[in-house]
Structures are given as structure tokens and as C-alpha cells.
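Model the whole thing, not chain by chain.
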Amino acid sequence: MPAVSLAVNGKPVTADIDPRTLLVQFLRENLRLTGTHVGCDTSQCGACVVHVDGVAMKSCTLLTLSLDGAEVLTIEGVATGDKLHPMQEAFRENHGLQCGFCTPGMIMSALDIVRRKGHELDEKTIRHELDGNLCRCTGYHNIVKAIAAGARAMGGGGATQQAAE
Amino acid sequence: MSATGIGAAVRRTEDVRFVTGQGHYTDDFHRPGEGHAWFIRSPHAHARIKAIDAGAAKQRPGVHVLTGADLAADKVGNLICGWMIHSRDGSPMKMAPHPPLASGKVCHVGDPVAVVIADSLAEARDAAEQVRVEYEVVPAVADPAKAKEAGAPQIHEVAPRNTIYEWHLGDKQATDAAFASAKHVAKLDLVNNRLVPNAIEPRAAIGEYDPGSDSFTLWNTTQNPHVARLVIAAFVGMAPEHKLRVIAPDVGGGFGSKIFIYPEEVVALWAAKRVGRPVKWVAQRTESFLSDAHGRDHVTHAEMAFDESGKIVALRAKTIANLGAYMSTFSSSVPTYLYATLLSGQYDIPHIYCEVDAVYTNTVPVDAYRGAGRPEATFVVERLVEIGARELGLDPADLRKRNFIKSFPHQTPVIMAYDAGDYHASLQKAIEIADYKGFGKRKRESARNGKLRGIGFSTYIEACGIAPSQAVGSLGCGVGLWESAEVRVNPTGSVEILTGTHSHGQGHETTFAQLVSERLGIPLDNISIVHGDTDKVQFGMGTYGSRSGAVGMSAIVKALDKIEAKARKVAAHMLEASEGDIEFRDGKFTVTGTDKSAAWGEVALNAYIAHKFSGQELEPGLKEGAFYDPTNFTFPAGCHICEIEVDPSTGETDIVGWTAVDDFGVVVNPMIVEGQVHGGIAQGVGQALLEGAVYDSDGQLMTGSFMDYTMPKAENFPPFRVDTTVTRAPSNPLGIKGCGEAGAIAAPAAVINAITHAIGSEDLSMPATPGAVWAALQKTKIREAA
């Protein structure tokens, strides 16, 4: 089996893998990083979103072998020790999750929206940018609030500013 | 109200694990030596299985292929439907055998025919490619309206004309008489579209057999682990209950679809023993479409009769309900006792009559999906009221007010006894928030922009808090629908609450702890909520029907009552006072009129060290259990107002405003309750505008993935304006009514009432896609031109 070397959440990983191993399988099965989820088989639900070299990607659509040398960030690598990342804190503060299954992908996508669109995000932009992430529980209302609040907090604006009344 | 007690918007304690990726869903578990299962499913809607040739697949190392014949040889029983419905002629419903792997014939696309087990999922799938199944395809029927027709293919021997039951409720004669003398009759033909629940976590199961103890363990995405254990033990006959442990860890959404006992988990358990290794199965999304129980799928004709003053005098409905290829666990109850019993809505209607014919078709089984029967009832009632108002030239809000039930208790003609509510209050509040008065102005503004604007009401009611055991027993339910709780106080004063309900997004770890925190005066950090494991929780009925607060938390109240009573006795010994002089408040026991006191933790410790009392007069320890059976259903109700704009050139509908004012009784955590309302509305809007499972005439599912079944996305919604009014539920100690399903129940009628208002045509079915709305608009134009 061919070998692949990449960095996951800052740690170097080398493994011999079946060439057809998808990144999400590699993360979940080989590394037992089970925070990245699989909710569909057609690359639509976004539960599997991770960052590859700083950019959000659906890990169900990437062959691990194609990522030799890449840096991968998963939901497990977002917090700093016990301290939640402002975007994670914003999801909790604004009740932006219910069953939690879509949440890791939502947060990884949210971070990418901030990277591309900045810290002052209007509602319309957030809703449009969430095209690739499905949630069946929340009706998106509080996810949109959470991302706006998290984006501001990342810019130094305070995560609790738009907390649920 | 304390900062963490009932009524506080406490941030959820479970969230830290979910936002950091540390949740534990079924697919996250691995058992040593596990094999991976892949199901071979029928590509045909209706066929005889002539032969299965698994020879080549079985040659591969480590591969097992098991079929229905193996299952039968091991005497594995069939899946069952647990709610008996009798037809109008008194005959029992026609329940056809449902083997976990098809035996001799397949009845829908996706029906599992064989299971392949291998070292990896990839190897199982490769091996499955080498299994040859020879089918003899026979004619199929997917359309429920055609299933009863003479000459339609008969799916099961036990059910001539594919008829499961022909049921009715109400007084036909009196209802027909009221119609005969009515001033006006509003009529409606509708299809309540078939939906696919699509929890984002696909179903999954891990079966494990331990030969040493001759016992099984099942990790399963289920909303009710004890019911799963009961059915798999008592009906499937896999193992006696005490030799079967069911674990439902974090579950990623359910919406009803994870209530039911499915073939795959039974097969995973059975195969684990048969092949001698744990067996893991995780559904692909396409398998979810082909095997999770679908929802709704009614064809209905309904009529509402009015007198000259706009008073509703009668309602009648005739429904054909599609239950799919087999009767799923609670399927029979959904189009009957969860549907026709709510046809009175919020209105004082003297006469109601409903007939429901349930049929088999060559489609995925249909069962409860968020709201279950109540969205279907609300759609019938609220569309008819709106149509009636338009035809009578009355304001739809005024017509509703004129007909609201105003005094309680109120006995409807269809079983339910509403016990509390204030329908006028929620409608009035919603009208104000939505600025109903200003609608005309907004409509003119839309018109200037070339858009058609409409506003639609839905004043829904539901029956929740499911349910009083005696009542449901008399209606055919095979189980009681009480709930259990156990309170375990540790010697250091921390508390574990064991509940028979299950949380799969509802936040029970927070809300249940709020109740305990308030009652015992201890911080949330000192309270654990334990659920989802039959080895920990003795028994329980699970979570569905918006029951966990009203029924589950009431069981906790009852157990806490016992805990407090015993703790008072312990405190009396400690403080050398008589029990009657002990007061308990804010986590402290005091002796009336003295400065003597003992903290909660000290009393807990004393209960266990038992130094201050003899074991004869008072048992050591502090642990109590309770079973709570409600005295009535609860009746959440409210008003949702939807405002939309239609682009007449494309038929595209844009929701521009949503107001929800709901009466859920006492609210434990307003933040969580609002979240439940948001989610329900999104599913209801999904039904109204986007979603619909489509079968072709041969029974092929044309919408088998997220590529062709439209799931609601963030961009489909405006921000929701959500508020509440409160009347306490008199039937439980906390006054809770339940909130989980309201949005999904209210929303479809509100959306369709708004669009039909905008386009001036009632002839619009769900989902109201741009194409459907555009076509309806053209018909209106043609009619107006003529």
C-alpha cells in the first residue's frame, strides 16, 4: 500500500493506506478523529468539512493520497486546550446547534467564511455562504446568529454580543 | 426564578462536546474484531426472488453472505406494528409479515435481500458486486389512490385490494345532516406530500454477541432504546430482554425516523452471533432514502360547513393513507388516532366525521415524522378555514376568532378533551407582531415591484405529552406511554438522574438538570442526566410526540418528591428535630424557629453513613424511582403567520416574514424552546415549498439523494419572529405542554394559505415549487380572461 505524509491539527502523520481511502475515512478510521462526520454520499451535507492548507473542503470528496504534504485542520484542532475558539463559543452562546451532528462542518465552514468575507457579516451573506451545509434541527436561524457573533468576536468584537435573548 | 432553574435560558451543558467534535455517535464506536456489513437491496419495487448466488462472494477471505433463508433457519421473527386498528366492520388491521431480510419476494426498492459482512466496508461492497440475485419482476403500485383499485397488483396475501384497514371516527349521520342544512360548504382536495425525514446522522447499528454470557449488545441510532429491546426480544425473538443491552449514544437527529425497529439493526445483532464477530452497519444517505420510514403521504378530500354567520357547523374528511410496503412500528396510529382526533383544530365544531383507508404500496414504509398525523390534520382544517373565509368574504383572522373554543375543558366530537388554552391571545399577539394591519400597504409596495404578496394564517393545535396509558390502550396501542425516572444521590451530594427518555438534539442534559437544580438548590455541575442505555436505565418509553418534558420531567418530579421526603427524615435525625419542623429551601434543611441547619451535601452524606439513625427506622441511602403516567394529553396550540412574495414571471416564492406565537404551557428553557420552534418551521416550510419524495409508476424512487430531494437551506428562510403565550397544562405537575413538533405542524398550512392568497387560486399542491406556483398562476389568468 502506498504511503502518505501529512500534518493533521499540527501533528505529522505518516501511514500506508489503501489508495481509495477518502480523507474523511482516513481521519475517522485511521486517526480516530471522529468529530468530522459523514451525512451523505453526494458531497452536499457539509458535515465532513475540514480545512486543507487553510481552505474549507469536503473531506468526503478528497483522496488522502492526493494530500501528501498538506496541512489538515479538523474540528478537534480548533480550540486551544480547554479554551473554546470564539466561533465555537458563539455557537454555544447562540444555541447554534441541537443534535450536534452537522456542527463540526458548520463551524469549519463558518471559519472559512470569516477568512474570505471578514468579520462584519450580514445575514444575507451568511445564509448564501451556507449553501454547502445542511442542518435539519435548527432551521438555521441561530446558526446564522452564531456565525455573525463568532465572526465579530474573532475580530475582537466579543462573542456574546448577539447572544440569544 | 434562579439563574439555572425553570424559565432560565441556560446555555447547554452538552454543547462543549459537540462544538469540539467530542460527541459519541454510533459510527464513532469500534468493537474489537468488528466486521462491516453491506446490504444488498432490491432494485425492483415488486419482484419474486428466484435465486441468490453468493458462491463467488463467499470464496473471498473473511466474507460472509447471509440471506432471508438463513434468517428463517435461525427462526428470527418478523418486525411488527404495535398499534392495533380495527376497520369499520370490526375486523383487525391486515398486518403482513415483515422479515428483516426478504423472504421469497421483495416489496419495495431498497428492501434488503442479503447482507455481506467482511473485514472492511470496501471489501464488503466489492464482495456484494459478486452476489447474483435473480428476480422475476411483477407489476407494482406506488400511488395510494390506485392501490385499492380492482386489478391493482396485490402486494400481500393477507390484504386483498392492498387494504390494511378502513377506519372511521365520529358520527357520520349527524355530520351529514349538518352539511345538508349548511349555508356554505368549503371544499378541498389535497395530497399531503410524502417526506423523507433525513436526520443528518444516518442510521447505524453495531451488534455484538458475547458467548461467555450468552448476551447481546446493540449500539443503535434509536430514539427509544428500551422499546427497541422489547420488540427485538419479545417479537423478533433474538434474545430475552435480560440478555440484550441496547445503547443509544449521541444520536444526530431523529424527527420520528429513529423511533422504529428496523431490519438492519436486527440483522446486525443476529449476524454478530452467526459469524462470530461484532457487526457494524452505517447507512449511506441513499440507503436512508430507501429504508428510513417516510412521512405523511395522504390523499384527502375534505369539506367544512358554515352557517350564515360564518360559524363552522361540521367537518368531514375522507383520506387514503399510504403506509408503504410493510407496516412500520407505529404506522397504523399516525393516520388514525394522531390525525382524525385533531380535526377540530382550535374550533368549536359540533360535528366531525372522518374515514381513513390505509393501503399497502410498493414504497418505503411510512410512519411518524415530526408532527405525525397532526400536520396532516392541521393542513386540512387550516386550509378549509382559510378557503371558507375567502369564499364568504370574511377576514380569515375574524373567522377564526368567531369559531375559537373559548371555555375549557372542551370535549371535541373526536375523542380529545382540550383542558387549557387561550387561542384568541396567541392569534392577537401574532397579528400585532406581524403587523397584519400594515399588510395592505406592504402588498401595494410589492405590486409596485412587480411582485404578488400574500399572508397566511395557521392556528394549529396538537395533542402531545404522549400519553395516558389507559387512554392509548383503549385505542389499540400495544404499550403504555408513561415515563420513568430514577434519582440517585451520591454521598457527596452530587445527583444522577436516570431517565427513560432520550435526547437527540432536544437538550435534556440541560433542561432536566435545570429542574433538579431548582428543586434541590444545587449547581448544574453537580447533576448528570443519564439516558440511552438499557443497562443503566431500567425502562422507559423514549422520546417522540413532544413527550419528554411533560411526561419525562414529571416522572423526575415524582422521584424528587420521594427524595425530598426521605432527606427530610435524615435531616430530622441529624438536627435532632421532629420531621414536621424541617424546612427545605435553596439546598438547605433548617429547623423552624431555630438557627439549626444542614446543607444538602451533609444530609446526603448522612443518608449513606447512617450514623444518626438506625437501619430499622430508616433505610440507609438516598435513591428513589418513579413511574409517571399523565392524566391527559397536553394541547400545545398557537398561531403562525407567514408572509410571502411571489414573482409572477417565475413562480418563485420568497418568504419575507414569519411570526410564531405558541402556547407551550410552562417553558423550562426559552432558548431551547425557540430553537425547537425554528427547526419545526424549517421542516414545515420544507414540506410546503421544497420537499417531496417522488415515485414513478413502476415504484422507482426518483428522489433518492440530496441531489434530487430538495432539503431546506439557510437561504430559504427569513429570520423568524418567535414568541409565546402561556396557559399551564393542568395534566402534569410542571404545567408543560411540549414544543418539539409545533413548527412542523403549523407551517405548511401557513405557507400555502399565503401563496394561495397572493395568486388568487386555491388549486396548489405541495411542494409549491416555482413550476407549480407558475402553473397555478396561469390557470388563474386563463380563468379570469374567460
